[in-house]
Amino acid sequence: MVRQDHPSQKIVSRPQLSVLSRLSMDFQHSQRTRELLARLDGFIEREVAPVEEPYHRELLALADPWVELPVIADLKAKARAEGLWNLFLPDAEEGAGLSNVEYAPLAERMGRSLLAAEICNCNAPDSGNMEVLWHFGSDEQKRRWLRPLLDGEIRSAFCMTEPDVASSDATNMHATARLEGEEVVLNGRKWWSSGAGHPRCEVMIFMALTDPEADRYHQHSMVLVPRQTPGVKVERMLTTMGFVHAPGGHGEVSFTDVRLPRSAIIGGPGQAFAIAQARLGPGRIHHCMRLIGVAELALEKRCKRVKSRVAFGKPVAEQTVTLERIAEARIMIEQSRLLTLKAAYMMDKVGNKVARAEIAMIKVAAPNMLCKIVDWAIQAHGAGGVSDDFGLAKAYAGARTLRLADGPDEVHRNQIGRIELKKYN
Ligand SMILES: Cc1cc2nc3c(=O)[nH]c(=O)nc-3n(C[C@H](O)[C@H](O)[C@H](O)COP(=O)(O)OP(=O)(O)OC[C@H]3O[C@@H](n4cnc5c(N)ncnc54)[C@H](O)[C@@H]3O)c2cc1C
């Protein structure tokens, strides 16, 4: 019998007990998810999968790959006509009106394809930026920027990270957004602004210091910057482990005395951190959902490969190390999927704030899982695995970058550790 004062009595604190007692997760897909998943699956198989390889070959053969090939607009029109548009948006009129749990299997399915998320207008960074505008934009900001983003007519970038400071601590930011009368004046240099290279990138969300006197989390603002404003310059496009990620890419962008009306600030001066919290919830867990799809595809490729190759007198599939690794990969995928769903479920039921440990956990678990699984898939393909022929090298680079792009693993682990320790206060 556990004594009343036994430490184990204190492991689950009151607020957590109430959260846990309300959890009754249902593992079945909703009717709406089942319908959409069947439609999405059919659409990707029929329309997207056949064009993916030729599309990437054509794009990379261009001297200037920072263009949108006509096939993209054609496919987008078809996806929209089939109701496979803005699936990520919880708004039932403008999007599919799905909860995070309902959206997860659709994001996973899109993750198996290099183009599907973009074709269905569910790609980063636009989906996160649309959510910011949907939640926090003024009527005018919604009309000018959210409307064309929802219609897939324009693209966007999110500019927070800076080359000169450790940006995993966003309070380090040096860039400024100073108020001068009815104007806001922007100065600073950003990098890793994803999407900045896209020919239809027309708006950038610039995050910078407005009031150094305010408390730590009310000093910064987010400003909507039309791409063509004087003083905005894309200095160069970066590569990630050699891949250019055209046509969106990741840009280094300078902002020099960029003048905009005060009304370009989202949610008012000093609100950037509150908005970022909201953006980094759903927008970022979508990455994790898609990564599960990439992992499933890598495992599928690996299984097919090891069954088709014979080495030292028997199929590679029959080597015990192969079986061991395939089993381990299956276990890791299932674990990550369940944790993603749990995080999504908690976000739906108790909000992003209470779900912050689960969100942080899956941000560490999913990219690390994928790195390992793609690494094993590369190994199983022999030298072919590191070529461009199987898409594995690109998948590895993508997985590896996501251990940084959503904030470094260490920062999420620190957060998880602190939340865990708090239980014993
Ligand atoms: C492919 C890709 C796309 C991206 N897209 C965008 C985008 O669209 N917009 C944007 O603004 N940014 C983007 N980023 C940037 C990304 O958000 C940052 O790289 C990330 O926040 C880390 O900042 P940093 O690179 O300045 O690393 P730093 O802050 O310099 O950190 C370097 C290392 O220090 C260690 N470290 C840092 N803090 C801690 C800690 N508390 N405890 C222990 N160790 C620690 C970690 O190992 C970390 O990797 C993208 C990055 C990549 C790779």
Oligomer: single chain
Order the strands across the largest sheet as they lie in space.
2-3-7-6
CATH topology value of the largest domain: Butyryl-CoA Dehydrogenase, subunit A, domain 3
Number of spatially distinct domains: 3
**Helix share bin:** 40-55%
Name the bound molecules.
flavin-adenine dinucleotide
* Distance, first to last CA: 24 Å
Structural class given helices, strands, pairing? Answer: alpha+beta
CATH H level, superfamily name of the largest domain = Butyryl-CoA Dehydrogenase, subunit A, domain 3
Textual characterization of the structure:
The chain is α+β, with helices and mostly antiparallel strands. It folds into three domains: about 30-125, Acyl-CoA dehydrogenase/oxidase, N-terminal domain (Butyryl-Coa Dehydrogenase, subunit A, domain 1); about 155-270, Butyryl-CoA Dehydrogenase, subunit A, domain 2; about 280-420, Butyryl-CoA Dehydrogenase, subunit A, domain 3. It contains 13 helices and nine strands. The strands form three sheets. A four-stranded antiparallel sheet has the order 2-3-7-6, with no helix packed on it. A three-stranded mixed sheet has the order 1-4-5, covered by helices on one side. A hairpin with a 2-residue loop joins strand 2 (about 175-180) and strand 3 (about 185-195). It is globular, with a radius of gyration of 23 Å. The structure holds flavin-adenine dinucleotide.
